[in-house]
Amino acid sequence: MNAPTCAHHWEMINILFGFVAFEKCYHCRGLRTFFSLEQTPFLGEKYREGDHFWSRVENAQSFRFDLCCCNCGRVERFDELMGLLHCTGCLPECEVDVLRRRYEAEGKWIIVAFGFLPDANTPARTIADEKLAILSDYFNQRRRPGRAPIAVVPFTMIPDISLCRGDFLHDVGMLSQEPPGERQPLL
Amino acid sequence: MTTQDLIDRIGLKPLSRFAHRDVDGVFISDMVSDVMAHAKPGNLWLTLQTHKSIVPAANLVDVAAIVVTSGKDVPQETVDLASKYDIALLVSELTTYELVGLLHALGLRPR
């Protein structure tokens, strides 16, 4: 007899606030991102690492978390999740935008889950489809009945992230009370 | 307490098109990361932020409404996005502190 499967009900745990650091190499124009717990991250900090000349181009206040099922205690870690991005429809041929328009016609919203970019020569860390489904479940379990559901999609659907002008759901420019301008491309 | 009640009793000004809903608790923050981590569905979110990214953040958490305080000007693209998402986007000329006093007097508490 098969053991009953759990109808997972997720809650956010291990919440850790910090910064997502964006660094650019001015030698190869590569971009990398990582999570930092620095108290006061510096913009413009430059250093050499092998053939790379890295410079910190952006610090975004963000947070990390894991999800835990309240029913069975299963924990899903999301170390590879850099952040969530709201598609603004900037690239009509982008798979994310195509899906966004289709889903909106069906009454559903999408949000893009971004993985970290380890360095200029290493592909970005992808997030498993199962984890994206769990993240979607987490958000949808909290919504009132009748609210349009949310689907979390992978950033690998974006053909060229250097051209993407989607809005990351993180905090930049927190010292200013003026709304930030349009996000500049990272490359 | 519904969003309609708050508009009528406190004078919050609606900017977006939305369906009225029940309000359950108040959350105050100017950081979308803080909202995504700690706000609860049905919360009234008070903030000074007006960038359009507050709308998808509010939608992810399913807050009852966003209230921009201190008479901040809200860009039209933020209003349009809130209408699209059926998110109540309200504004108040009051400071956050003053508004919280009124909300507390009405019986709203953090949740």
In short:
The complex is a heterodimer of chains A (187) and B (111). Chain A is mainly beta and 187 residues long. Chain A has helices at 95-105, 129-141; strands at residues 10-25, 31-36, 46-49, 52-69, 75-77, 81-86, 109-115, 150-154, 167-168.
Structure description:
With 187 residues, chain A is mainly beta. Chain A has one domain (10-168). Chain A has helices at 95-105, 129-141; strands at 10-25, 31-36, 46-49, 52-69, 75-77, 81-86, 109-115, 150-154, 167-168. In chain A, strands 1, 2, 3, 4 and 5 form a five-stranded antiparallel sheet that branches. The longest helix of chain A has 13 residues, at 129-141. In chain B, α2 (32-38) runs parallel beside α3 (54-61). The two termini of chain B are 14 Å apart. With 111 residues, chain B is an alpha/beta fold. The radius of gyration of chain B is 12 Å and the shape is globular. At the A-B interface, β1, β4 and β9 of A face α2 and α3 of B.
Secondary structure topology:
The complex is a heterodimer of chains A (187) and B (111).
Chain A: E1 10-25, E2 31-36, E3 46-49, E4 52-69, E5 75-77, E6 81-86, H1 95-105, E7 109-115, H2 129-141, E8 150-154, E9 167-168
Parallel strand pairs in A: 7-8
Antiparallel strand pairs in A: 1-2, 1-4, 3-4, 4-5, 6-7, 6-9
Chain B: H1 3-10, E1 13-14, E2 26-28, H2 32-38, E3 44-47, H3 54-61, E4 65-68, H4 76-84, E5 88-91, H5 96-105
Parallel strand pairs in B: 2-3, 3-4, 4-5
Antiparallel strand pairs in B: 1-5
Helix pairs in contact in B: 2-3
